[in-house]
Amino acid sequence: MSELFWASMADLGRMIATKEVSPVEVVRAHLDRIAALDAKLRAFITVCAEAALQAARGAEADLMADKVVGPLHGVPWAPKDLYATKGVRTTGGSKILADSVPRADATVVARLGEAGAIVLGKLNMHEFAYGPEGLNAHYGDARNPWDARAHRITGGSSSGSGAAVAAGLAPGSLGSDTGGSIRIPASLCGITGLKPTYGRVSRAGVLPLAWSMDHVGPMTRTARDCALMLHAIAGHDPADPTTSALPVPDYTAGLTGDVKGLRVGLLRAHFTDVAAPDVRAAVEAAAKQLERAGAIVDEANLTQVVHVAAASSAIVASEALAYHAAWIRSRAQDYQQDVRERLRVGAFVSGVHYVRAQQVRALVSREVDEALARRDVLLAPATPIPATVLGERETTLGDGTSDVRSALIRLTRPFNFSGHPACATPCGFTGSGLPIGLQVVGRPFDEATVLRVVDAYQRLTDWHTRRPASV
Amino acid sequence: MLAPVEIDVATLRRMAALGGFAWTDAELESLRPTVERLLEMLERLEAVPIDELEPTTQYRVL
After folding, report:
1. Is residue A266 part of a domain?
2. CA angle at residue B24 from B23 to B30, to 5 degrees?
3. Which among A8, A161, A181, A365 is annotated as catalytic?
4. Do B54 and A359 touch (CB under 8 A)?
5. Secondary structure of chain B: what % helix, strand, coil (to 5)?
6. Which of A105, A208, A230, A393 meets the CB 3.0–4.6 Å disulfide criterion with A110?
7. Which domain holds residue A352?
8. B14: number of Cβ within 10 Å
9. Is A471 inside a domain boundary?
10. How many domains does chain A fold into?
11. Which stretches in chain A have pLDDT values below 70?
């Protein structure tokens, strides 16, 4: 069967369960595609071909014995190389952990395994997840599949996840998101990426960047696939004390396409108004589409988010250096330069700065909660700019300029700071054919409504079905 | 209006030493512009009315 690599996880699961296709066929189709394209895309750090095929044969045997475990039975996926995978090296995109082989899976990797999903390999990333550009000096920079002529960034830090899912090398991935590292590559690569509520999904076995800002979440091509993955991984984990004991709903149950009466706030000022013209127009059009479908749309402003850059920098810099302190002292030369410098900056943030930043966090969280008290979701661009060319350092933002790094994280970082769930999904393309990302933000633990809005939008449009011409 | 933050390498060296880090002057000089910008941004947070707010980091006995 041709083009299995473009099927969604939901469709693959259904085709496998009905024996229309074998898990072995599906895995082989993806491995062949990886072999054909990954030398250029550099999405993978490690490919687990033999293990994946063996797991597929096992899934096939279970299928023939009518032992289908669920909708992800036999469906391939690939985690960012931040997730511990038993017996498979987990590098964190680093030289320092190049030979590190965990003895156990991260909780979420184990949960997806129990759901029958099959790991294809480990995906490239910005070293130790500390960068929104998705650059890696040790394993090569992942390449955005949407531009055949120029090497554009995928965004990061889940760079390989963005490239792999966009190019059909894997139907789904787990990324991580500390300042936008799921939503930025989702936006720049034209896929769907969900940062759940802080505490919805276990971080046990996932290399930390900043404990209080890190989130684990799915990256796929559809809201339904995000819902399937989230359902498999969400829920309390004794190994991660920050996880919530709140029950995990069936996230697919609310994917009805109906948004009538849903209250949607389009975020202006800090968010939409500074975006590039193409991006702004696409997000405004998305709001209008939802309105035509019956949503009640108004405009909203979050005035306290101007403090997020300073406060979140203090928190991330401190927590990241705390984790990396021993290596920074003993192996500084083994880091890539930008990560080494970002880590070192953490030494100059005082305890008082850190606590004040956490007070600002309470302020911003309260404002987002107040905006969502009168609305069901908020809308904004996921990134104010599309993918830049590798090496580009400055970009236009609003009436001025900004460094690319700050621009990329500007609109995503506030919701790592506040912990609210947020999903990026494609909402159009620039005049030069680059994806534009819409961001949908919801109330704490209301991923169901966020996914419902994204799914409804995906039924009204076909942006999420477009494929890069170069692959 | 707050004056721009200016820090010399000697001050950076002392600050880094408090955290147990010993970096060369060249390494510290390379960090200086970023640290100055960050500290300027953090100084501006002093004007934000947050004194009555509990920080989101709290110790609780469960």
Report:
1. yes
2. 90
3. A181
4. yes
5. 55, 0, 45
6. A105
7. 4-465
8. 9
9. no
10. 1
11. 1-2
